[in-house]
Amino acid sequence: MACASGEGFQSHLSRQRISGRTGNEAGAASFLHTETVSCCSFYQGIEKLSESRKEPWLGTPARTIEILQKYGFRFQKKYGQNFLIDPHVLEKIIRAAGIGRDDCVIEIGPGIGTLTQYLAYASREVYAVEIDRNLIPILEDTLSDWDNVTVINQDILTLDLNRFVEEHNGGRPVKVVANLPYYITTPILMELLEKKVPLESVTVMVQKEVAERMQASPGTKDYGALSLAVQYYSRPEILANVPPNCFMPRPNVGSAVIRLTGRLAEERVQVQDEGLMFRLIRASFAQRRKTLFNGLRNSRELDYSREQIESAMEKCGLSENIRGEALDLKQFADLADALSGKEDAADYVDFSSGVKHTPVT
Fold it and tell me: Among the residues of the chain, which ranges form H helices?
């Protein structure tokens, strides 16, 4: 593996081998709510890049504890660290992501390298972005048998991923795979989606409740701004539910593996002003119990008169008592088109970016 610091990483992505340990261990019982296969069939189902490619050996409770004790590692709550300790779950993630020998993978938060080993075994190349400096020596150890892994010690939210993909995969779409910290799931996913990073898919482990929100339909309790944003940019699919006992330490809630398959621009709902559509969506769900009309009128992100909102809603065939949670993505796009260009020339703040805008008149 190679290791690079956050600053100047482009000049440090050289390949190097570090002598280390190897091994393999049978998988623990699976708790997935889907069909599972044995470790043997998992390895047989993946075509190796070379005969020297090592099989993953980290991922059981015993191996995880051994590594943690070896380095005296202490979990940090601020990073939301929960390491996977079930090989069957790890195998399921690899299959769900459809990782193959030609894939370039970006892993967010590799931890001690458990999932990284499986990714390195199955793919052409892995770039693992880890924020916690204390984990870098551990990763140098656990990933030393794979020369197709580069570890980058940086906050994923500060990494220019469009530039990165251009430089290290020729601008071709990459696959993102991660066991995401629950506290920062939404910011990371929106960074990937809104910045239009070339993505083939994003396969992540997240809090089960969040996964259900991403896939939710209009009129349900889980439906909201996150549902609409994710579904605008991708097609979400929950592939497995994972209980707390598959992690160390155990989280207090259940988890789920969800895959987001990117939509091409022409596959998305068409809208004249994408930014306006999302401001309407955020305003509609800021206070779920309010009607759509009141949500739009009370939003600090919008500056429309009562008459303009009433006219646009009537044009879209929306009743005055309807709530935002009843609208699908196409209806929000139509409403945005009906209101496009009618906003008053007062300044407004885009709270998704914190940027103040002055509309051109």
Answer: 39-44, 61-71, 87-97, 114-122, 136-142, 161-169, 185-194, 208-215, 225-233, 274-285, 292-298, 306-315, 329-339
Inside any domain, residue 323: yes
3-class secondary-structure state, position 256:
strand
- Angle between the N-to-C axes of helices 87-97 and 114-122, in degrees from 0 to 180, rounded to the nearest 10: 40
Interval 307-318: pLDDT, tens = 999 999 999 999
Tally of domains in the chain: 2
Cα separation of 120 and 103, whole Å? Answer: 10
18 lies in which domain range? Answer: 2-267
Residue given tokens 């140098």 in the structure block: 140
Does 327 fall in a domain? yes
Same structural domain for residues 56 and 199? yes
Helices (H), 220-273: 225-233
Question: Exposure pattern of 88-127 as b/e (b: 16+ CB <10 Å)?
Answer: bbbbbbbbbbebeeebbbbbbbbbbbbbbbbbbbbbebbb
| Residue 10 belongs to a domain | yes
- Please state at what angle helix 329-339 crosses helix 274-285, rounded to 10 degrees: 110
**Could you give the CA distance from residue 298 to residue 132 in angstroms, rounded to a whole number?**
41
Collapsing DSSP states into helix, strand and coil, what is residue 152? strand
Q: Do 301 and 257 lie in a common domain? A: no
Which residues share a beta bridge with 27? none
Q: Per residue in 70-120, pLDDT tens?
A: 999 999 888 889 999 999 999 999 999 999 999 999 999 999 999 999 999
Eight-class DSSP state of 250: P
